Amino acid sequence: MIEIDKVSKSFEQKKGTSYQALDEVSFTIKQGEFVSLLGPSGCGKSTLLNLIAGFEKAYDGTIRVNGEPVKGPGAGKVVVFQEHGLFPWLNVLDNVAFGLKQQGVPKKERHARALEGIKSVHLSKFIDRYPHELSGGMKQRVAIARALVMEPDILLMDEPFAALDEQTRYILQKDLEDIWLRTRKTVLFITHNIREAVLLSDRVLVMSTQPGRIKKEFAIQAARPHQAGDPLIHHYENKIMETLSEELEKVVREEMGHDYRIAKNAVPDLPDRNLGIGI
Amino acid sequence: MRRTLFLIFLIVIWELGYRIFDWGWKFPSPLQTLEAFYDGFANGHLFGSIVASMRRLLISFVISIVLGTGLGFLFARFRFFDETFGFLVVALQTVPSIAWLPFAIIWFGLNDTSVVFITTIGATWTMSMASRTGIVQISKIHLRAAQMMGTGNGLKMFYQVMLPAAFPHLITGVRVAWAFAWRALTAGELIGRGLGLGQTLQDSRDIGDTATILCVVIIIAVIGTISDHFCFKRLEDGIMVRFGLHAAKK
User: Which residue of A47, A79, A188 to mutate against B (max B Cβ within 10 Å)?
Assistant: First the structure.
């Protein structure tokens, strides 16, 4: 369970001004729930994840994970990063077993458990490969296996599929949903892709930008596993798109000047409903 | 193959030159050099010198690698340390280590310790700069990943993540440190007393034995090349390939 209560965070900028990344954000993620945090680039969603993960300190408000205030990284929270973060000097097996090694699990057992984890992401053939020998999708699978093998209570995923091509992303989304249905971990998933958020989550929290706030919340009440063709899924996508087009306009204006306007109804036709890429 | 031919060609020219111009004892002929090689190894003097020099070299090398890596780590992690002592090291790096020999002689006397001392100094600074760069350039995501998997921020983090992550830089540092150590060692031994390659050079000069001088020069070149090519270069290539920094050659 993750409880976020009135969390604010600002960064010092060079000229002495401060930049408010998060403004009194509050929400709760229940045990076993899959929640996505969706928003345009720069809305503070990654900052929030870093706070929950314990990578960054110094914020206002309280963050509790399983009732305990966050003290630092580790302790049942595992992160899957956008750029995989695998260790290039270790092969797949040792990368996955790394976390268990830190827990003092004996070699035989940790290799057995790592193998299990690698199997669950369908990479058994590649256990002795090094990260640079793997494709982007495979690296991300290893990163997921590395996270799951530690049997965390909470999985924090920071745009894990953002750098992948469309097909690979689709397959990994399906696999992640499978894994989640099997393990029922609590997942906080960060993305700027509306379809991805709706396809994977029980709940989508839409963030507004500058400062970052939770703008609206959508409970995705569609049958699991979610199907891309499900009209209900499509309906949620459109509703979220409406909510977000305002935010999008804000981002675009910020970057391109104040005379820029997005034509009405133009945004929902973006081909893959991606936000933030290429702006 | 091409290299071997070239070497043979060089030796032939050299012998011819010696015969045609007849320049006398100031530079030996290939045959005299070969003879000096044979004599030197037969009476064990050359071999003894090599062993003695290598012993000094290895001692200083190990000290400077450990010390340099440690210093580099401190520079990379503690800003204050970097801005104070780190600046000094950059300055010290420009001082040829042989310049410390007078001090070394005053402190330790004309003996092995002095030679080891300046050899160590010669290699430590470059090693520390290389290790600093290596550790500074470790990507944040690797450090975070390690922390989240429970390495903490102490020794476990250092030898399981920072050291291997900095390896490509470290190994380059080791190569340069080896070359620097060699230079400092030979220079130090020229002045120091006892048995060693540098001392042999100096002794041979005293008695005008140019063939032995050339022998020692060749030995130094050969050991340097072999150690770099077969030891460090191999190691470096292996690591680079493993890290995916460049594709495997051939």
Answer: A79
Min distance A34 CA to chain B CA atoms (Å)? 21
Domain B32-243, CATH number (from 1.10.3720.10, 3.40.640.10, 3.30.160.140, 3.40.50.300): 1.10.3720.10
pLDDT digits (tens, 9 = 90+) for B65-103: 999 999 998 888 888 888 888 888 888 888 888 888 888
Q: How many Å apart are CA A188 and CA A207, to the nearest integer?
A: 14
- What would the pLDDT profile of B191-226 be if each residue is shown by its tens digit? 877 788 888 888 888 888 888 888 889 888 888 888
Record: contact A87-B161, CB cut-off 8 A: yes
Instruction: Answer yes or no: is A17 within a domain.
Output: yes
Residue B69, min C-alpha distance to chain A (Å):
19
Q: What residues have CB less than 8 Å from B187, skipping those under 6 apart?
A: B97, B98, B101, B118, B198
Q: What is the pTM of this model?
A: 0.77
- Structurally, how many domains does chain A consist of? 1
pLDDT in tens, B97-112: 888 888 888 998 888 8
B165 touching A (Cβ < 8 Å): yes
Predicted ipTM of the assembly: 0.80
Q: Any CB–CB contact under 8 A between B162 and chain A?
A: no
* Least CB–CB distance from A89: residue in B145, B148, B167: B167
CA distance B222 to B194: 23
**H helix or E strand, kind and range, residue B15:** helix B2-21
A230: containing domain = 1-54+154-164+174-279
CA–CA dist B66, B59 (Å, integer): 11
Q: B155 and chain A: CB distance < 8 Å anywhere?
A: no
